[in-house]
Amino acid sequence: MKNFLVPVDFSEASRNAAKYALSLGEVLKAKVIFLNVVPIGLLIEDESFNSRIAAQAELVESNKDFLSKEITEISKNHLVATEGYVAEGAASEMILTMANENQSDLIIMGMKGKGKSSSIFGSTTTSVIKKSNYSMLVIPEGASYESIDTICYATDLNDRKEAKDISILLKIAEKYNSAIQILHVQKQEGEISDDEFIHKMRVHSNFDGLKRTFNVVTDSDVIYGINNYLENNPAEILAMTARKHSFLERLFGTVHTKKMSYETKIPLLVLKEG
Fold it and tell me: Which family, according to UniProt (predicted)?
């Protein structure tokens, strides 16, 4: 494992994700690279051009100093290599540029709740998920790091566009000796079709040598199905291939009046799409 990229904005949500990344990086022997992005054009419009340039430069230097101190503070109890960078530009674009330059194995981002009536997906996290060709680990603000004993891998047996790269999932499972709960939510009760059975066998073969079970639950709403399953079968990570904003938003947001039980508990590993 080479490195993890962890965007930070000095919020509690990103600090929580940074701590999680350090713990995971220590186990997986990965360097943790922190990135803070300073947007261009946030300064007061009626300032002179030179004043704005100077103020922007001052903000960048201030963030560099703060980031350095933050990394020192949160990594002092971890045996893991770290680096820190501050860049200027659009957050999602700079994150992806840095990921490309460092050939990051995983992007780890925090996620902050905004109340029952709002999405808790920040615009930057959402944008990176939609644009990225990298696997991502999204850490809810209320989640805390713990040994990854169980991973729930939700898969759609009707979808042939599965994750094309599950290496990060396999690496985590191997290092932690995790049990893999392969989960399929069917909308109607009944036996799976021949095509679904073939896909099931293919998914099973991806996890040869690991502890794994195959589980089918029935629910007209896939998200409720996943939620209900996790309520009775706790896991430390939920993994899936999902790039659509609305689907991911519902996973960690509000569905009607019911909050997902794992909204503030379980990190979501978003795998590369096939």
Answer: Belongs to the universal stress protein A family.
Residues 111 and 205 in one domain: no
| Domain CATH number, residue 7 | 3.40.50.620
Scan for tokens 């925090």, then name that residue.
Answer: 110
Cβ atoms of 56 and 86 within 8 Å: the answer is no
Q: Which residue type, as a one-letter code, is found at position 1?
A: M
Number of domains observed in the structure of the chain: 2
Of the candidates 109, 140, 171, which is a domain's last residue?
140
Question: Among 175, 130, 173, 151, which residue's Cα sits nearest to residue 272?
Answer: 130
pLDDT digit string (tens) for 182-239? Answer: 998 888 877 666 566 666 676 767 788 889 998 989 998 888 888 889 999 999 999 9
What 3-state DSSP class applies to 29? coil
Look-up of token digits 């430390």: 236
Range of the structural domain that residue 252 is part of: 150-271
pLDDT at 87: 93
- Scanning the chain, the segments in alpha helix (DSSP H) are 12-28, 49-75, 91-102, 123-131, 167-176, 194-206, 222-232, 245-252
φ, ψ of residue 2 to 5 degrees: the values are: -90, -65
Q: Same domain for 115 and 154?
A: no
Contact 111, 141 (CB under 8 A): yes
- Percent of the chain past pLDDT 90, that is, above it, reads 43
User: Nearest 5°: CA angle at 125, between 37 and 139?
Assistant: 105
The tokens 């700079």 sit on which residue?
A: 94
